[in-house]
Amino acid sequence: MTSVRQGLAASAEPAAPEPRRRRREPRRPKPIDVQFRTIVSPHQLNSRWGRRIYWAVLVTVVVSFTLIFVFPLYWMITGAMKTGEEIAQMPPTLFPAHLSFDAFLEAWDLFDIGTLLRNTACYAVGGWLFSMAVDVAAAYALSKLRPALGNVVLGAMLATLMIPPMVVLIPTYVTIVDLDLLNNPWGLWFPAAANGFNIFLLKRFFDSIPRELIEAAQIDGAGALRVLWSVVLPVSRPILGVVSIFTIVNAFRDFVLPLLVMSDSEKMTISVGLSQTAGAVSQNQIMGGLVIASIPTIIVFFVFQRHIMAGLTAGSIKG
């Protein structure tokens, strides 16, 4: 009886819980040693002397290249403030002895810069409008309409970028003469529209536009022109700004073709007009005319400088 009672008491006691098994933690991958194949390793660059050398080299390079690019502009501006004798002085001086702005006023009257700027602005605006119409239509057709032999046409356009401009200058001039476009703004507007680089930039941006937007507009009944005007152009403002800047600046700086096409003194561009009268005026007056001629392009650059990089990189990343 005693053994039976002990067995019943043992069975009545709760069983001791079994020990829990520990969950095995996943093995963490061993860190991979990254090898940097550079002249200076990150460890050396993060050291005290490494940082000093890095900043010294960086500041030297930035300052040197800034001086190289800015010094001609500085020399032109200060040269306009000097007298003719001071410009011819050897060795030349970096700062004018007496600041004078008379050369700017004299250059404005002698070169008739008002007329030259008006002519150049007319050619630039007309070339911009014509270039936008032709280049945007061509890029849109190659990107979204996908015509037959479109890649062949694009390759032929890009092949023109490999040809030096001077090689096609004579054929371009002969074509302008055959079309009787001498001393005619269309003689400058037609070549401005034939720009393979602008078409390539526009096409690359149009390629990054999601296809779903185009298909949604087509489902709503929009045609190709409606899609271009209402869908593609509103989202393409950055690249349109870049192409506009390139076109306008190129119209102001172009020299050889306007020299051949616009031989009439009343229709010359600013660059051609300054060169035609440069031999009859003093050097400081020439410098003053060049400073005035460069002001429009400098203003365009500072106003739209952020659109340049935004437009060039906007079509490079999809998503």
What does this structure look like?
By secondary structure, the protein is mainly alpha-helical. It has 2 domains: 42-87; 102-314, Orthogonal Bundle (MetI-like fold). Helices cover 67% and strands 0% of the residues. It is built from 16 helices and no strands. It has helices spanning 2-12, 42-45, 48-80, 84-87, 102-110, 113-145, 150-159, 169-178, 186-193, 196-207, 211-219, 224-232, 237-253, 256-261, 270-277, 283-314. α6 runs parallel beside α9 (186-193) and α6 (113-145) crosses α10 (196-207). The longest helix has 33 residues, at 48-80. The radius of gyration is 35 Å and the shape is flat. The model is unreliable at 315-319 (pLDDT under 50).
Name some characteristics of this structure.
flat, disordered C terminus, MetI-like fold, mainly alpha, 319 residues, single chain, 2 domains
> Which regions have little confidence, pLDDT < 50, spanning 5+ residues?
315-319
Total DSSP helices: 16
CATH topology of the largest domain: MetI-like fold
CATH architecture of the largest domain: Orthogonal Bundle
Number of strands: 0
Biggest sheet: strands, sense, closure?
none
Q: Mind telling me the CATH superfamily name of the largest domain? A: MetI-like
